[in-house]
Design a protein that fits this description.
The complex is a heterodimer. Chain A is 38% helix and 19% strand. By secondary structure, chain A is an alpha+beta fold. In chain A, β14, α3 and β15 form a beta-alpha-beta unit. Chain B contains 17 helices and eleven strands. In chain B, β10 and β11 form a beta hairpin. At the A-B interface, loops of A face α11 of B.
């Protein structure tokens, strides 16, 4: 047991991330791939063919889409794309891997080193765009094939005396991204995981459904301990396997951060060759548990796969793929903040889903053609999408999920209202022609199939939702309400401004949506001598 | 040539495949007749040689009737009605992918192994499909050393095939069943596979032609892998023209095999002014230069092999060839490099036979688990030679030994290729050679059981053949002579050519053949 006491603890984390690519077919064969939206709910053992089953005589043929998707991710992370990349066999026996070897990339991965600029992480793993960003070094990203699934109890949780093999996932392309140990807080790691998921989804390279294991995280965690005698020691690296939620990533890191100094005090073990430990995550107990003590227990006998030739990647090909790089969600977020004056939270929410971003950009563009200033257009459109739109999206998704738990959730862009209608709504609001209640009602009307090409202003007029611009009418409604509520009016006159709310409500009721709340309040207070 | 009368009966001649196809295409004979004749020969000769593991008499006749109908409908097919035999490491599915062509061949693909004793493939090997598309009729699947590991056909889990020239002797291996089926003239043509000499050595032992094409010429799709970087499917035939026709039929770029070459069907026939490989083959090479490596006259050769080598050199010189002394210094390392590379790849390729999805599954005692299932299924399913090579391959790929063995073997492999390249390019001391001549094996067919107790002696059988696989080059065995003492056994010589230059080998073989018959 070490005698020195610990003065301070510095966390150090590197990440391995598996991304299940959304190619239509598998990595080395034409069998449909469950990472693709059309096949992700296929019945067990239906996405198979002679290669997936490793029947004798079946040979692997590389899927070019998987290569291009990997190049896209590599380019987005600032990685070098290999001039020559090649395939190796990782040999081990397991029933979920029919060939008894996994085709992977050992020493010539498709993506080499890179650096990714990670925004500063606020607590909770939200980005803080005001603080300086942190460069995260990417070690490599390589392609490999996924294994199948083994069930040791029957679906429904009944005990069985055998295991069930489902080979649907066998051979699905996986991109494994490896970072240097550049993370110093759990917040940074969680932010990176989130940013990477959003990035990969926006590039269209993965469905990124966490519950389906489309992204799996394996943090390598250790701590640098500064001791009372001024020296430092590093605790053994712990690799936590197969985390598929941000919550578990955070939980595993926080647990290790607390537990590793304690374990060091107990056993004095420090980082070194052969000291790496593999641990799993217990989601219920919120702690990691030991899986394998020493890393070199397996000898995978890697060697070049003789069935596949090395792949030469011409620079022209890289340039072609680079053209397909869309604006990254982080850059989009920064642009929304800078050009449209949105808050970070709103900008992030809008930038998360690519279709929503496109919808938002189109709505803003339309509002600008209707005469709005960009920041005004951005603010109003963002409000429509994130409030009026998101409210309806949530309702519909709840209904959908109740009917079919496997149903794909919808987005604002799927509601039925068009981007130009949202632009029109923004313009009507900007000109003070509709109030917020009317805007919400109109938003709902535009989602109805029969109104999807309708002019919003025409709809508003037909529904009597245009604000009464005649000041006389408004003054008339106010006078009526004051007369009907003399006591409340007196309270306001006496300075109890909170009493004005009740009068405002009465006026709005009388106006039946043709009045704007802000205008009503101003005129009401002025009338009662408080303006 | 004097044979025993029994051997005469076993090898009695039949028309060549190209003659059969011509007759069927001209409707002078029917495919049903050629097939029935082959089935009659099978019935009378097979019991003495045991070349086949499975035969398809009914499917073959059904298929032949369909071929006859297609000919009657005006089609012309290069192998119309030609009965062929297929080595049992090429898969044949029940449905041959052409609508209406489900002839019901199917059957097992055993690779000569207990572990695949009852394995039925759902799909068909590309090379087999191409023969079928060319009008060939499949008579049956032939015996082989288990998973193509062996040089005698004694390592089949099911039967020992005998040499049609002398049934007490082996037919060679691993494509011994195909060699014996052709050597006994049951069929004029068969497919084999060659990883370290498995077409060329049995062709020599059985007195027939056998070609290992350039790596990448023939699709490996549907060939059960032994060593993927060395395996190549090739034709075996009694007649050189038949060999050329079959070569052109099976060589093609295949999208199902990543190592299939884009040049797979390139022949450069224009130079010879011909439209097919068999036509181009007829034009002799002027200024022919043949390299004979010092290593071909190894002291460990059987004296008759060295004599036949000298006879072949003499007949080449008679037809005007320059015979050049060359050196292939890396030949000595060939066996070692081959057995490391092949075993390494085999240890991985054969790992899929685990008893989980198909093939032999051991029954377990109570309390035994997954690892027991693997160990027992594989121990029961694989023969000793296969187990030996799996262990060897596992060892050479292990951490700590990889560089000493596998990487060193890859270096030797590159140097072996360089040796050949130098010989084809020429040096200051010798002109560029069109081909290299050496024996196909150090001896004639040995007696059944003679070498089965000594695996290393059997490995040394491959000394002249493995270099060609390691270098990816084409190698052609031609019948070249006979042993001087009884029993009279055939001895073949091997011609090795530049990559993708099978045509030159065929032209030289035709020149040699013509010089012998005139």
């Amino acid at each position: 047991m070490p005698s020195a006491t610990i003065q301070s603890v510095q966390l150090k984390v590197g990440l391995e991330i598996h991304v299940e690519l959304a190619t239509r077919t598998k990595m080395f064969t034409r069998a449909p791939s469950p990472g693709y939206a059309d096949f992700d709910t296929a019945a067990p053992n239906t996405l198979i063919d002679p290669l997936v089953l490793a029947l004798p005589g079946a040979l692997p043929v590389m899927n070019r889409d998987a290569i291009e998707m990997s190049m896209l991710v590599g380019l987005a992370l600032g990685c070098d794309i290999a001039k020559v990349t090649s395939w190796d066999r990782k040999n081990y026996f397991y029933p979920d891997m029919p060939k008894a070897y996994q085709i992977s990339q050992y020493d010539r991965p498709i993506c080499g080193t890179g650096v990714f600029d990670l925004p500063a992480a606020a607590s909770g793993g939200e980005p803080d765009f005001d603080a300086p960003s942190t460069p995260i070094r990417i070690t490599r990203a390589h392609l490999e094939e996924d294994a199948g699934k083994l069930l040791h109890e029957s679906p429904g949780g009944f005990a069985i005396d055998h295991s069930i093999v489902d080979l649907n996932r066998t051979g699905t392309p996986l991109l494994e991204i490896v970072t240097e140990p550049d993370f110093q807080t759990a917040d940074q790691v969680v932010l990176f995981c989130r940013v990477l998921r959003t990035l990969c989804r926006s590039l269209g390279v993965t469905l990124g459904v966490m519950q389906r294991g489309h992204m799996r995280f394996e943090p390598n965690i250790n701590c640098i301990l500064t001791l009372s005698d001024g020296t430092t020691v590093a605790t053994p690296v712990v690799e936590v396997k197969n985390l598929n939620s941000f919550r578990s990533v955070r939980g595993a890191i926080e647990f290790e951060l607390a537990d590793q100094p304690r374990r060091w005090q107990e056993d004095g073990k420090v980082m070194g060759r052969g000291m790496k430990i593999t641990r799993g995550w217990d989601d219920k107990a919120n702690r990691t548990f030991i899986q394998r003590e020493k890393e070199d227990a397996h000898d995978y006998r890697y060697f070049p796969d003789p069935d596949l030739l090395p792949l030469t990647i011409e620079r022209e090909w890289v340039s072609e793929v680079r053209l397909r790089l869309t604006e990254s969600p982080l850059n989009r977020t920064r642009r929304y903040m800078k050009d449209l004056g949105l808050a970070a939270k709103e900008a992030l929410a809008l930038a998360e889903e690519h279709p929503v971003t496109q919808f938002h950009d189109a709505a803003v563009a339309h509002a600008i053609t209707l005469g709005l200033a960009p920041d005004r257009a951005g603010r109003l459109t963002a409000n429509f999408i994130l409030q009026n739109g998101q409210k309806r999206v949530n309702e519909r998704n709840t209904t959908l999920a109740a009917r079919d738990s496997g149903a794909a959730p919808i987005l604002v862009s799927d509601l039925g209202i068009s981007a130009s209608q949202v632009g029109e709504l923004a313009a009507l609001r900007d000109k003070g022609l509709i109030n917020s209640n009317a805007a919400d009602e109109l938003f709902g009307l535009c989602c109805a199939p029969e109104n999807q090409t309708a002019s919003v202003e025409a709809l508003a007029r037909a529904q009597g939702l245009i604000i009464e611009q005649d000041a006389g009418a408004l003054q008339g409604w106010i006078e009526t309400v004051i007369a009907a509520n003399p006591k409340v009016a007196d309270d306001v006159r006496a300075g109890k401004l909170q009493a004005a709310g009740r009068l405002m409500g009465e006026v709005m009721k009388l106006a039946a949506g043709k009045a704007d709340a802000k205008n009503v309040r101003e005129l009401l207070l002025k009338t009662l001598g408080q303006g | 040539m004097s044979h025993s009368s029994r051997a005469d009966a076993l090898t009695a001649h039949i028309p060549a495949a190209h003659g059969m196809a011509a007759a069927v295409n001209a409707r002078q004979a029917s495919a049903v007749e050629t097939t029935r004749a082959a089935l009659d020969r099978l019935a009378s000769r097979e019991s003495a040689i045991d070349a086949f593991l499975d035969t398809f008499p009914d499917a073959a006749l059904r298929h032949a009737a369909i071929i006859d109908q297609r000919i009657a409908d005006g089609e012309s097919l290069p192998l119309a009605g030609v009965p062929v035999a297929i080595k049992d490491n090429l898969v044949i599915g029940p449905d041959l992918h052409t609508p209406g062509d489900a002839f019901g061949y199917g059957g097992r693909t055993t690779c000569g192994s207990r572990i695949l004793e009852n394995y039925h493939s759902p799909f068909t090997a590309t090379s087999v499909q191409r023969l079928i598309d060319a009008g060939a009729i499949i008579i049956g699947k032939t015996n082989m050393d288990e998973f193509a590991m062996g040089s005698s056909c004694e390592h089949s889990a099911f039967k020992i095939t005998r040499n049609p020239h002398e049934p007490a002797h082996v037919p060679g291996g691993s494509s011994g069943g195909s060699a014996a089926a052709v050597g006994s003239n049951i069929v004029p043509l068969a497919l084999g596979s060659d990883t370290g000499g498995s077409i060329r050595q049995p062709a020599s032992y059985c007195g027939i032609y056998g070609l290992k094409p350039t790596y990448g010429r023939v699709s490996r799709s549907g060939l059960v892998a032994y060593a993927s970087s060395l395996d190549q499917v090739g034709p075996m035939a009694s007649d050189l023209s038949d060999l050329a026709i079959a070569t052109q039929v099976i060589c093609a770029t295949d999208p199902l095999d990543s190592t299939s070459s884009s040049r797979a069907a390139e022949w450069h026939l224009d130079g010879a002014g011909a439209s097919s490989l068999v036509d181009a083959m007829a034009s002799p090479i002027t200024g022919l230069a043949i390299g004979v490596p010092a290593q071909a006259r190894s002291a460990s050769n059987h004296p008759d092999v060295t004599r036949v080598l000298n006879d072949t050199i003499a007949s080449l010189q008679r037809i005007g060839a320059t015979v050049v002394d060359i050196d292939l210094p890396m030949t000595d390392y060939g066996i070692a490099a081959y057995y490391i590379v092949a075993a390494a790849e085999a240890s991985s390729n054969l790992a899929r036979f685990d008893g989980i999805r198909y093939g032999r599954r051991a029954s377990l005692e109570p309390g035994q688990g997954l690892v027991d299932l693997y160990c027992r299924s594989r121990s029961e399913g694989f023969g000793k030679e296969v187990q030996r090579r799996i262990m060897l391959g596992t060892y050479v790929l292990s951490s700590g030994y990889y560089d000493a063995y596998y990487n060193t073997a890859l270096k030797a492999r590159r140097l072996i290729k360089q040796d050949f390249d130098t010989c084809f390019a020429g040096t200051s001391s010798h002109p560029a050679c069109h081909a290299v001549l050496m024996p196909a094996a150090p001896g004639p067919a040995f007696k059944i059981g003679e070498k089965s107790s000594d695996p290393l002696a059997l490995y040394l059988e491959d000394v002249y053949t493995v270099g060609v696989n390691l270098a990816g080059l084409p190698g052609l065995t031609i019948p070249a002579g006979w042993t001087s003492a009884l029993p009279r056994l055939p001895i073949g010589m091997q011609l090795i050519g530049r990559g993708f230059d099978e045509l030159t080998l065929l032209r030289i073989a035709a020149m040699v053949r013509n010089s012998q018959t005139t």
